[in-house]
């Protein structure tokens, strides 16, 4: 899993049926740089500036209600982010 901060939203005017209902957010890993930003699907309502927990392995498909071509999925919003140095 990856701990990261939501940096923005990805908008799509067209997408396949299995992606409808998913919001896509740009996430920057806490230990990464601006170049390390990736897109993660969200259904729990994370927003820009929030720290989130993202799964990027085979457990991603278990977090979905139906099969979809998603590589990263937001599974939690961090309520009390750790102090970063």
What this model shows, in words?
The chain is mainly β. It contains no helices and five strands. The chain has strands at residues 2-10, 23-29, 38-42, 51-55, 73-77. Strands 3-2-1-4-5 form a five-stranded antiparallel sheet, with no helix packed on it. Strand 2 (23-29) and strand 3 (38-42) form a beta hairpin. It is globular and about 40 Å long. The mean pLDDT is 87.
Number of helices: 0
- The computed structural class is mainly beta
Q: Rg, please?
A: 13 Å
Coarse morphology:
globular
Q: What percent of residues are in strands? A: 35-45%
Strand order of the largest sheet: 3-2-1-4-5
Note poorly predicted spans.
none
Distance N terminus to C terminus?
21 Å
The quaternary structure here is single chain
Strand element count: 5
Mean pLDDT: 87
Largest sheet: 5 strands, antiparallel
What is the string of helix and strand elements? EEEEE
Helix content: under 10%
Outline of this structure?
By secondary structure, this protein is an all-beta fold. It has strands at 2-10, 23-29, 38-42, 51-55, 73-77. A 5-stranded antiparallel β-sheet has the order 3-2-1-4-5, with no helix packed on it.
List keywords for this structure.
single chain, 5-stranded antiparallel sheet, globular, 85 residues, 36% strand
Please specify the SSE layout and strand pairing:
Elements: E1 2-10, E2 23-29, E3 38-42, E4 51-55, E5 73-77
């Amino acid at each position: 899993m990856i701990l990261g901060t939501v940096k923005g939203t990805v908008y799509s005017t067209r997408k396949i049926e299995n992606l409808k209902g998913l919001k896509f957010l740009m996430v920057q890993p806490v230990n990464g740089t601006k170049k390390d930003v990736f897109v993660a699907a969200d259904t729990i309502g994370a927003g820009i500036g929030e720290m989130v927990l993202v799964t990027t392995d085979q457990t991603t498909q278990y977090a979905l209600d139906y099969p979809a071509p998603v590589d990263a999925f937001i599974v939690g919003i961090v309520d009390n982010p750790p102090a970063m140095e």
